[in-house]
Amino acid sequence: MNIIETENLTKVYDGIAAVDRLNLTVKKGAVYGFLGPNGAGKTTTILLLLGLIQPTEGRAYVAGIDVQEKPVEVKRISGFMPAEGGLYPNLTAFDNLMYISKFYRIPKEDAKKRARELLELVGLEDAADRKVGGFSTGMKQRLLLAQALLNDPEVLFLDEPTNGLDPRGAVEMRELIRRLKKDGKTVFFSSHILSEVEEVSDEIGIISGGKLLISGSQEEIKRKFIEGRVFITVETKQPLVLNDLNTEVIEWRKAGSNRLTVYASRDIREELVEELTGMGYTVIDVHLHEPTLEEVFLELVYGREEG
Predict the structure, then answer these.
(1) Is residue 79 located within the same domain as residue 136?
(2) Is 304 a residue whose pLDDT tops 60?
(3) Closest Cα partner for 146 from 106, 113, 97?
(4) What CATH number corresponds to the domain at position 267?
(5) Which residues are within 8 A (CB) of 42 and not within 5 positions of it... i.e. 6 or more apart?
(6) Is the pTM higher than 0.70?
(7) What's the structural domain count of the chain?
(8) How does residue 253 score in pLDDT terms, banded at 50, 70 and 90?
(9) What is the dihedral of CA 86, 88, 91, 93, to 10 degrees?
(10) Which of 217, 245, 271 is the C-terminal boundary of a domain?
(11) Where's the ABC transporter domain (predicted)?
């Protein structure tokens, strides 16, 4: 069952499509990693899914609710952790949560209990009565997550949740995301950090220039990407200095001073060895390989710019 669906979702600012005919689905209970470079349209997509901004065209549905028609209902079942802001520095961690609980009309005693439980969940129980202005970036991120969980949402939208965190803080955030999945939450989180998405996501969507380039599980993405292509790694004894290859190649990318990754429509290992040998290179290894998620991401988003 899909809990998030979009149909040609589009948002245009000053003639430029920040989100361009987006069609995506997210399964209930999944962790969906929304991966893309800065400015790709990740935050705009989240704001559209929450009904915080209106689309130029297209539709979005969360738990079967039309976001455009019933944005308040969507907010009632959703939690949102923004990339920055959203906290009151002069209030304590506990008081921040109590203040936000009023917007959800949670009874005071229930709100107190919920706030204490969430502070314990995110590891801030010992800092509950400290003012947030003195918190580290990691502590603020954890409090933002607790705030997003106040209304016990079905769906969590996390915008760059590990942004600005040190390695330990990033590990702690990943562990929290895994725990939320175990609790039955659907987590939709955006990131420009490939390793973060790769480590915790059940499914991944890669976005660039407002367009969803590919989506699915990691294995599905690799399978879709390699359809109709063969991936070949070539290593030479000498450093490679190449402007182009004459052999039947779709794309090629340098992967170090003396290594190439070649994309072709068929197995052209013999032709590659012959061509490179003719250029004076000694080929010491040539083999077929399955692309990594990093290679898929770089090729889809940047093309040959990274070569």
Answers:
(1) yes
(2) no
(3) 97
(4) 3.30.70.1560
(5) 34, 36, 159, 160, 190, 191, 192, 207
(6) yes
(7) 2
(8) confident
(9) 20
(10) 217
(11) 4-234
